[in-house]
Amino acid sequence: MGDSMPPHRISVRQALGGGAVADVLLWRNWSGGIVVLTSATASWFLFERAGYNLLSFGANVLLLLVVILFFWAKSASLLNRPLPPLPDMEISEASVMKVADTLHVWINRGLSIVRDIAIGRNFKLFLQVSVFLWVASYIGSIFNFLTLAYVGVLISLSVPILYDKFQHHIDEKLSVANRSIQTQYRKLDESILKKITMQSNKEKKVQ
Predict the structure, then answer these.
(1) How far apart are CA 75 and CA 62, in angstroms?
(2) Are 86 and 72 in contact (CB under 8 A)?
(3) Which helix (H) or strand (E) element contains residue 156?
(4) Using an 8 Å Cβ cutoff, are 26 and 16 in contact?
(5) Contacts of residue 43, Cβ cutoff 8 Å, sequence gap at least 6
(6) Cα–Cα separations (whole angstroms), residue 115 to 42, 108, 180
(7) What is the pTM of this model?
(8) What tens digit of pLDDT does each residue of 30-84 get?
């Protein structure tokens, strides 16, 4: 028998969409990565450490922008200068439909999970959702939303590039961890979950 071909591995850049966002997350676009990191750090410092209020800060920035544009336009008409170079300020219908389609898919997926738990009595799914919500609640009790968002930005700018450099070694470790988790889950499934499922099926038949 010939040697089997190794499985084709998709690159990290392809997994991230292969566009401008992937270049920023993988630091192939250094200027974009620096802008994102600097903006996130400055925002976190202003609102978390310096004590600025997000609403008042945003309103003051918009007020300053409106004043600058107004006087720019007025001075341009008096001095025969070009008007401020503003793009077309409108959202295309295609963009709105794309966002609506994405929300439609995610909302239906969430409603399907709720239905499987409430009506289908899917105990495994119930257990997974409960653990996920408990972890989310625990993380939320440690960090506020702004800090959590900032940590998410730092992770997004560090994990993809580290995984891209050490993908082979990380995949090996994840494979070992996944086999261990699957083994423990099968033991739990055989000892507890199947008994609960059988009991639930018996109750359905009685009803």
Answers:
(1) 20
(2) no
(3) helix 145-165
(4) yes
(5) 146, 150
(6) 43, 10, 31
(7) 0.59
(8) 888 899 999 999 988 888 877 778 788 888 889 998 898 888 888 877 777 777 6
